[in-house]
Amino acid sequence: MTTTEGKRATYKQRYEPDDDGLRFQELTYTGNFVGMDPVTDGIKGDKMMRARAKSRVLEKVSKEDVLRDEFTIDELNDLNNYLAWNIWDVLVMRATEGVSGMIPRQEYEILAFMHEFYRWPEILRMTTDEVGGAQGVMDIGATARREIGTKINSVHDWCIGAVGFGMGRCGLLALEAIGPDDYIEESNIILKFMQRVLWGKRQDGYILNSQDRYRCRIHEPELLSQITSQLEPLDEGGPAHAKFTQFNAAAELLSFLDHYDCRLGLGDTGPYELPDGQLLILRDLFVNEEIFHWSDVCDDAGLPHCYTLAFTIDPEKMGLAEIRVNDISTTFTRPKNYIEAITSGAVFAREKWNTPMGEVYPITVAELDKHLEKVQTATLKLYSKTSRMCRRDLIWNGQYVYYIDMILPHLRLAGTYEKACRDYDLWEIDQRVANYYYEITKRGFAQETVPSKIFSGSGYLPFSENADRRRSKYRWL
Amino acid sequence: MAEVLAEGYNVFDTSKSPSGTVKYLASPADVIALIQSGKLKEHILLVRGGTTTFLAPALSMGAIGVITMSGAPESHLGILSREFQTPCVMTAHLTSSESRYVVGNTPEAHFEEIAKTLDGRKVRLDCTDHEIGRVLADD
């Protein structure tokens, strides 16, 4: 450690009620609050957004609130505004990354956003019915408390509302395919599903990590105890530390590649403070998703569905000032480099998405070499395979990663995935969205309009105060 | 003090200061050819985007340093560079030019100027500052 010597950890101050957190970026957010003070990122931004809410939906809510059939218009607008800020908070800087050179991500993203908004509502309503109603959906969320290697996680659960509702509606508004008061009933279905899964998972009354100062401490103590018993000490500069961190990076890279350069392949939870003051992070890296046909190279390499890495960070060693596990399951710290402060680690493998927890097995650091080789082999083969695909295939494959994978874990646990495929044509492309394929590259829609509307927050138009909550879309004029 | 050729976001603080000849990679074929050449570790890699899939095999096989023309530490390539502990300067701009990257509204000339100026130069990355990463001449 060279740049943080002599600094003491101050991160605990971030959890004091009056603390506003650090600023991770200089940009500020306006959204639907034109003429008011600009909103910051981080803890202060969360406070500002909640202070502007008209309802109580952004505060801790009760089980009865979550079981209620639908949101009011004020609640819908508060969620719309908060999710828009949250999207800006986690993605505005990421969205500066420009073209991929490999995968046309902006193009596949916008198609998926709109597809989700159109198609998910009836599938999520069917799924809610199949699990016996709202409580069944909350129970799906609660499973994440007892498992590792599960895609019932922050990023997937957040995507239901933030992407399917928020970005989907925003994209269609920008395309002028819908108006602000279209599809209110459908918006309610999507957001209620999101709220129920997240509430069931967290069980502290909040739904998002940003409401809890960027903490996602969801796992039951018994599970954490089993995991920490497997931690091996890792000395910075030593071979075991290098082996563990290299495996972390390589597996994370493959999880990105298998999921078409998106965040659905990884999931962090934590930070859990251990009795010795170390901070535990759990990281799921999904290196082989069986529903993707291109993942055959991961099968060939003998990779499991998921590697879970558990590791501890010494906050004093890095002079930790703030740690965020954000709502897209990614950990950011100040100072930025936490890798050198990793002091212990453990790795686990879950062979299939439904492998029972009792059959999830640990991998010692000494055994990581052979797993690293598998990961690197699959990475090279998948890269070569992807580089030969035409643009259209890349866009539609990426679209499927978003549109299918974001709700896949919930449908799997509900037992409705096959029904959605069979009776609801889940893997078909809606004709409206198929036609948008030719529209999104015109007038810079995907590369200029979408980033400016979706990532700046300016496109999340509110529902009218007196709008009818039963409203769908009835007129195409 | 060595000449500062370019500056950008520093993805993470590190005392590592890799040195090499800048190699501009324009296509996946360029990435594959570089790996097959066996000379990956002789180069600081210059790429246009801040996404991670484009550079996937290079990162996996031990790239020593990366410069991008767009993106930020929160971008996927930023996250992976941190995990690999590969020093990385993102959204680099030339200190000799007024041209800057603007999301969705950057002329091709901006990228071409950076590629033309840096490709083939011997450089060293300085990533010790919390916020700013620097590309230094190392000729």
From TrEMBL, chain A:
Name the UniProt record assigns to this protein: Uncharacterized protein
Record organism: Pseudonocardia thermophila
TrEMBL record, chain B:
Source taxon at top rank: Bacteria
Stretches assigned to coiled coil: none
InterPro entries: PEP-util_enz_mobile_dom, Phosphohistidine_dom_sf
Positions of transmembrane segments: none
One Pfam family in the UniProt entry: PEP-utilizers
MF GO annotations: transferase activity, transferring phosphorus-containing groups
PEP-utilising enzyme mobile domain ranges (all copies): 42-127
The protein, known as: PEP-utilising enzyme, mobile domain
Source taxonomy: Bacteria, Bacillati, Actinomycetota, Actinomycetes, Pseudonocardiales
